[in-house]
Amino acid sequence: MLSKSKLSVLILIVLPFCGCASVSTGNPSHSRALSHEEIANIVSSPNRSPEDKEADTRRKPVELLTFIGIHPGITALDLSSGGGYTTELITRAIGPSGHVYGQSPPVVKQVAPPQPGRNETLKSESIPVPSVASPKVRLSSPDALNKRIDQTGLKNITPLILPFSNPIPPELANAHLDLVTFIYNYHDLAHQDVDRIAMNTHIYDALKPGGLYIIADHSGRQGTGISESATLHRIEEKFLIDEVTAAGFKLQARGDFLQNLGDPRTENTLASGQLKDGFILKFIKPASIKP
Q1: Range of the domain at 243
Q2: 251 and 188 share a domain?
Q3: 131 and 150: one domain?
Q4: Are 162 and 224 contained in the same domain?
Q5: How many helices (H) and strands (E) does the chain have?
Q6: pLDDT at 111 over 80
Q7: Do 113 and 101 share a domain, yes or no?
Q8: What is the pLDDT of residues 132-163, one digit of tens each?
Q9: 28: pLDDT strictly greater than 60
Q10: Contacts of residue 159, Cβ cutoff 8 Å, sequence gap at least 6
Q11: Among the residues of the chain, which ranges form H helices?
Q12: Which domain CATH number covers 204?
């Protein structure tokens, strides 16, 4: 039987180790990253749509989820979810114990001009139509996500309509997220009047310590920054890294599976039909407090 003095020493030794177990790593402690084989099985699921499977050739979903190190049970936010391709993949990977939010910005509409030959009553009508001419327009896509939910039976998806400058719903604002993804659309923020500094700060604050921010985009030439966002739909990798790390993130890894080293990066669409050169980056929110 231990004496009181020996028991006190034992408690002092054990307590620090117990405290370490409570430190957040950004991923649920009960889960592990899915293996390459498990991810390949998810991607080959027979009830994925033919359109998504066709897109797999250029989107490389097995490599994407492996690069992320996706865990079951996490809470994720997919920015600019669009048709929901990436949102669905993440949802399948994290399983029913996790949850994915698919964000789209608010719809921008403009009134169509009066049409010749219509009477005065009709001319005065406001006819809201999406503007395809303005580069600032980006259509919201909750309907696309709801359609996926109906078709796949995946219930742990929540569509969001929030501006890019603050894409975080209030309930997730304070270190509630494990993962944020932004696939192929960061460059578009340059011609959408988005406060990217505010956006990255909100994302930083919403992620748990150890949480991940994954960004993939089309590669721009050295020195071009984000200046060719509306023309070539590209962004310079170094520019993006500098902008995101300024919010407090640390660059943890680069992926090379989206590269096409034969792309001169001078065109929006390659005449050869090849894919544009791309990059993918993994940023992490450090466990320490942001400076």
Answers
A1: 49-105+140-284
A2: yes
A3: no
A4: yes
A5: 9, 9
A6: no
A7: no
A8: 334 444 444 788 899 999 999 999 999 999 99
A9: no
A10: 81, 101, 102, 104, 141, 142, 145, 146
A11: 4-20, 36-43, 50-59, 61-68, 85-94, 120-123, 142-152, 196-206, 237-245
A12: 3.40.50.150
Coil/strand/helix, residue 230: coil
Please give the structure tokens belonging to residue 10. Answer: 């034992």
β partners of residue 79:
182
Q: What's the CA gap between 68 and 70, in Å, rounded?
A: 5
Q: Which token pair is 36?
A: 């390459």
The per-residue pLDDT for 142 is 86
Name the nearest CA neighbour of 175 among 205, 210, 213. 205
Which residue is listed with tokens 């690069």? 67
pTM for this entry: 0.80
The residues, ordered by sequence, that sit 6+ positions from 265 with a Cβ below 8 Å of its Cβ are: 219, 220, 221, 232, 234, 276, 277
Q: Do 61 and 116 have their domain in common? A: no
Single residue among 117, 139, 161 that ends a domain in this structure: 139
Count of domains forming the chain: 2
Mean pLDDT (whole number) for 204-229: 97
- What is the pLDDT, as a whole number, of residue 288? 67
- Give yes or no: residues 93 and 223 share one domain: yes
- The answer to whether residue 9 sits within a structural domain is no
Q: For residue 273, give the 3-state DSSP assignment.
A: coil
- pLDDT class of 91 with cuts at 50, 70, 90: very high
